[in-house]
Design goal:
Two copies of one chain form a homodimer. By secondary structure, chain A is an alpha/beta fold. Chain A folds into two domains: about 60 residues, Ribosomal Protein L25, Chain P (Beta Barrel), CATH 2.40.240; about 160 residues, 3-Layer(aba) Sandwich (Alpha/beta knot). Chain A has seven helices and eleven strands. In chain A, the strands form two sheets. In chain A, strands 8-7-6-10-9-11 form a six-stranded parallel sheet. A five-stranded mixed sheet of chain A has the order 1-3-4-5-2. In chain A, strand 9, helix 5 and strand 10 form a beta-alpha-beta unit. In chain A, helix 2 packs parallel to helix 3 and helix 2 runs parallel beside helix 7. Chain A is elongated, with a radius of gyration of 20 Å. Chain A starts with 10 loop residues before the first strand and ends with a helix. At the A-B interface, helix 2, helix 5 and helix 7 of A face helix 2, helix 5 and helix 7 of B.
């Protein structure tokens, strides 16, 4: 039932946003969502993000085909969320991990292909993860979409990291992760990164590489956590950091 | 392949642990896990928890039937984890939420049957959630198992809470959740509690009730979070609190 005061306004992902006056045609999931879930009508406002910082206000023009005109484009700063690198979790647990990391505002997820748990690149899987990241963007009405990288080995992943950000290694024997507020130095700081082993754990060589690259062992909970739970727990801590930074709380 | 140096020792859930000399018969999932996954043999040590603070060392006696003798019983203090109350998430998302809350050491999960999202009690669902809490106990080798309560209304849930613990209401417009370390006053403090609305949100009456009962609006992330993601994020923060308390970090 359409009840404008209560309704959640539609928010879609449009990779190519050019500028005011641009005419867009929405299809597939987006069209279903706008017309069936949000029950938008011609003349209604819909918002769209390109997942790279631009959010547009659109005016719906027609329903079949579903077309909309860009009225306004607004740039947004990056969310400031960290990077998460993980080995393969068990079974299908990567799927919801991707959804949750994206929802919590993680900037980039780097799957790690580890000695004890190789994670061969599979285009179909990558596409599914991209779709999950897109769904999370819609859910969160976010200007930025989490980047999903292709699985690579630890050494290559280390080489791809930005300089200067803090680096954490999830480790039950590490020091407790410091209180969120104590780490923060500003929005322009390079992103923090966490490395989390696969279900079977990193091997000694991988751990040594990570330590040598400045990854500091940090404990997230008193209990053993699965790969995907550790990733989530770190991302939740990182999200609180972002809140503190942006609201000065 | 059995490789004792590397292998993870078996850990099972046994609701009734009496004391040394007790003979146990393990069946079903537990038997499969001990003999097939952990490849334990007669004479091997297995550990068992009753989910209420007792952990036993068992010595495997025979494989078919799978019997074991209790060698030693050790009591453990409660984990100190908080209580989580949530409305219904969308679809099947409650299942993994239960698994993750249990893994992060939450003491009790109270499903809330809300005005906008009634959550009728269903014995089959409760049983599945209990199984997930048990699986998380095994995964975490924990002495305490998360308690799964039957869905009740907000007013009744409030009436069932322990006195004196801090109370949080997940709310994107609230103050940032304080840094983990600042809340801690000791292991014997009553558990903290969080209330998280269903996918459709609490209604005004429910929010008013929670506020009147001392629930303080707290923001977990700059983005909109789904019910289950907010629950996870709060539980991760609570787990860090527990780490700080128990390790004095």
């Amino acid at each position: 039932m359409r009840s404008p005061g209560d309704a959640t306004p539609a928010f879609v992902f449009v990779p190519e946003l050019a500028g005011p006056g641009q005419r867009l045609t929405l299809t597939g999931d987006d069209a279903h969502y706008v017309t069936r879930v949000c029950r938008a009508r011609p003349g209604d406002t819909v918002r769209a993000s390109n997942g790279r910082g631009l959010v547009a206000r659109l005016r719906l023009d027609s329903l079949a085909p579903l077309t909309a005109d860009v009225v306004e484009l607004e740039p947004h700063d990056p969310s400031g969320g960290g990077w998460v690198m993980t080995g393969a979790p068990e079974g299908q647990r990567a799927d919801w991990m991707v959804e949750k990391l994206a929802e919590l505002g993680i900037t980039r997820w780097q799957p790690l292909s580890c000695a004890r748990s190789p994670w061969p690149s599979a285009p179909a899987r990558l596409e599914r993860w991209e779709r999950l990241a897109t769904a999370a963007l819609r859910q969160s009405r976010a200007a930025w979409r989490m980047e999903v990288a292709s699985p690579i080995e630890v050494a290559d992943a280390i080489a791809s990291l930005p300089e200067g950000g803090r680096r954490w290694l999830a480790d039950p024997d590490g020091e407790p992760l410091p209180s969120a507020r104590s780490v923060t130095t500003g929005l322009t700081e390079p992103p923090q990164v966490v490395a989390i082993g696969p279900a079977e754990g990193f091997d000694d060589r991988e751990r040594e590489r990570l330590r040598a690259a400045g990854f500091r062992p940090a404990c997230l909970a008193t209990r053993r956590l699965r790969t995907e739970t550790a990733a989530l727990a770190w991302a939740a801590w990182d999200a609180l950091e972002v809140v503190s930074r942006t609201r000065g709380g």
